[in-house]
Amino acid sequence: xxxxxxxxxxxxxxxxxxxxxxxxxxxxxxxxxxxxxxxxxxxxxxxxxxxxxxxxxxxxxxxxxxxxxxxxxxxxxxxxxxxxxxxxxxxxxxxxxxxxxxxxxxxxxxxxxxxxxxxxxxxxxxxxxxxxxxxxxxxxxxxxxxxxxxxx
Length: 152
Hints:
four-stranded antiparallel beta sheet; globular; about 0% helix; about 35% strand; mainly beta
């Protein structure tokens, strides 16, 4: 049976001025490597971003059951890492419904070691309704997969 620290999705890579940060998630987002290359790294496995606090099902706690970093950008000028994460609130009525999925913003001021959520819960970017939406199949209103972020 998978453990909470096992990866549950993609690996996000973030190039910085001198290093490459690698993240993976399962409930928490873990910094799994901070290395000079993608082929020669040491696994770190340290929590960098966690779910919100409070009982599941409350809209203000839209990430109460998970925070998976999906995209990030390192700003060379400031040293900040700007991130967007898949937030989940396990609000299920029956086994045929998925939890509420949202997209939220986070940032790191320590070079990507840890992330904070500015103005939480005001960091919410995109969400479905504050209750489950049953479309007759196992999907949520923002889809069954995850989002992408494009820098313009």
